[in-house]
Design brief:
homodimer, 408 residues, alpha/beta, Molybdenum Cofactor Biosythetic Enzyme, Chain A, Molybdopterin biosynthesis moea protein, domain 2, Molybdopterin biosynthesis moeA protein, domain 3, 4 domains, six-stranded mixed sheet, metal-binding (chains A, B), MoCF_biosynth_CS (chains A, B), MoaB/Mog-like_dom_sf (chains A, B), Molybdopterin molybdenumtransferase (chains A, B)
């Protein structure tokens, strides 16, 4: 039986970046970029007016001029005209390109206007701006043309969408979504729509895994096989060749109906490991079809399935969306503070369901759930993550800081 | 000009729960539940075998019996048969219903088997279980039939999907998605696919708002209007009656092309407020069409648009998906620790872009970004949230704990 660290290393060793596809930007939200986005122009691309008001030459103000003749009015989106008269001004709007010949903008709040008998408008400055260039966002102040803005490997979140649009990335190269087959096994399972007999239960892991895999960016399909080696031999090959990952739940323990490991090996799937020194979820089986899918065969107890998915399969799904040499944000656990002492004796990693709360001092507080074991599905409802307690020591006092894997 | 607190209150006053729709459970992931989910059976629904091995009567073990005759083998999903002989055992698999007549399960690891000359199998117990009921997950240990499991108002995340499937909720009542029209305005804006002239820029706020609104559960459509009152008068009425919210960017400042507030009022939209004591994003205009959409008219500088969306529009979008009397999880800011001192003089709320990091002691650390102002879109790339600094004091020393609105 291997350690959690070793299992993590072996799962990570199967990570290969997925292929690239080119999508229209508006369809690419949430995808991981596979090309660098660079500034096609300076940011801002011109001396950009940052307030509605009047553009003047600061030298004229400094020389004591208070009233300015309005030579023209310039809206955002209009080409600027040279201001020829050093003592004149342009009434100007936010977003406009500052015209040559002026350098400073005075906002409406600091101006009074009058129109003379000839119909000419004049504005008087009520408050002197502190410096030349005031209320102007100078060309290239933020970024220069050619600068790397969004490197390959970044997920396209709203801020990245805005920048991609600005640089004209109408189509973008992104990772395709991982294809995941979610497979439930177990003769005791009936479809959701059926009324189970006394000794049966409804299929629940499959929908849980589907929702969790889709939230990690995957496209999923659901399958169910009975505990019958022949059905598995017939059904699994198409999944092993047609998907990037096959996530199974059930059928990997020591029971007489736990055919999965032997059938998977028969079908050519190379076993990477079986059983990890962890609770819950010890019977986790992991393998890889040469040239085909990786196989996460998770134990079927709901909490075991859940914890193994978030601990191993989700990080894998996020990682294969990354180009080589980059890592996914949000894939790693974060430190949290245990609010109650915990004892755990067996020398194995303990995944402890916790509710999480942000303390008033900014600390993330983790309170253990009173869970009924790996079959207590309802305990997942009131938890929002699980702490990873290392095999040693046996006692973890309140206040211990431990990594937490969040699932909410 | 009103305070941020007052603006928050006025936006919240327009919140009405959206209508309900009934969806197949597999299509309902991520939606907010509008009905209570209760346990249709006990959790577990029967005394559930939790290990593969052999079920026996504990009394026999306690009386010194070590070897048991295997009367039958029972798989998960098979109806149990009464064990008549108090000294016999059932070989049994995880997930099976414990048969009447036995009460304790001994796992395979603690058993040795032999087959006698008559072909009868026997098992000898190598390690005595600690108590009666060992390795049995008793009926109703976790929840009772009729118990409330998932209350209305809960978002259907993977754990809730599993529980919903278990109780047979093949279709569920959920909130419909809010319909959001995302509207950009501004004559300086050209489509992403076009090469802007020197004084133009590409439309970027619309895609940003679309991605952010969709991530908050909305269905969106994009629109663009030039800075022309006639175009706005023609185009806006269909949006005001056909959507739950209209989110505009640009056209709400003091500029001569900022027609939006007056056109919206002309079209019957009741202005709730215009301008909030905050930086960035002061010119935010908010209104409501009687019987129609609420209107978030956000200033067009990208950082202003962004911050106003996450501060006001996103909480609104999450809240309207909730049934009355419930609140959305993840909609409120969390406390974070300022890593560097900040001074901000104007007596208004300051939204400060920060990068966020989990410190080794479990504290969420917020480091201010060196941002170039409300036009510096690129500063959003390196930030993952913004702190809300109240109008007073002017000086915030390092170590101050402040609420942070996360956008990653």
């Amino acid at each position: 039986m291997i350690s959690v660290a070793e299992a993590t290393r072996l799962v990570a060793a199967t990570i290969r970046p997925l292929g690239v596809e080119h999508l229209s930007l508006s369809l690419a939200a949430g995808r991981v970029l596979r090309e660098d986005l660079r500034a096609d122009r300076d940011f801002p691309p011109f001396n950009r007016v940052a307030m509605d008001g009047m553009a003047v030459r600061y030298g004229a103000l400094a020389a004591g001029q208070a009233e300015f003749r309005i030579e023209s009015t310039q809206f955002a989106g209009q080409p600027p005209r040279l201001v020829q008269d050093a003592t004149a001004a342009v009434e100007i709007m936010t977003g406009a390109m500052l015209p040559p010949g002026v350098d400073t903008v005075i906002r409406y709040e600091d101006l009074t206007f009058r129109t003379d008998s000839a119909g000419q408008r004049w504005a008087t400055v009520q408050a002197l701006p502190p410096r030349a260039g005031h209320n102007v966002h100078p060309q290239a102040a933020d970024r220069h043309q050619g600068d790397l803005l969004v490197p390959a490997g970044t997920r396209l979140e709203p801020a990245e969408m805005a920048v991609a649009a600005t640089v004209g990335a109408a189509t973008v190269a992104v990772s395709r979504r991982p294809r995941v087959a979610v497979v439930s096994t177990g003769d005791e399972l009936v479809p959701i729509t059926e009324q189970p007999q006394a000794h049966q239960i409804r299929r629940s892991n499959a929908l849980m895994l589907q929702a969790a895999a889709e939230a990690a960016g995957a496209r999923t399909e659901l399958f169910h096989f009975d505990d019958d080696p022949e059905a598995l031999r017939k059904g699994l090959p198409a999944l092993l060749s047609g998907f990037d990952a096959v996530v199974l739940s059930g059928g990997v323990s020591m029971g007489k109906a736990d055919f999965l490991p032997s059938v998977l090996r028969e079908l050519g799937v190379e076993q990477v490991f079986h059983e990890v020194k962890q609770r819950p979820g010890k019977p986790f089986w992991f393998g890889q079809q040469p040239g085909g899918a990786v196989v996460f065969a998770l134990p079927g107890n709901p909490v075991s399935t859940f914890v193994n998915f978030y601990r191993y399969a989700r990080p894998w799904l996020l990682a294969v969306q990354q180009p080589a040499g980059t890592s996914a944000t949000g894939a790693a656990p974060v430190p949290a503070v245990l609010t109650h002492p915990i004892d755990f004796k067996p020398p194995m990693t303990h995944f402890l369901l916790v509710s999480l709360e942000a303390g008033p001092d900014g600390r993330l507080l983790a309170t253990p759930e009173r869970a009924g074991g790996s079959g207590d599905m309802a305990s997942l409802l009131t938890s929002s993550g699980f702490l990873e307690l290392p095999p040693e020591p046996e006692h973890f006092p309140a206040g211990t800081v431990l990594p937490v894997w969040r699932f909410r």
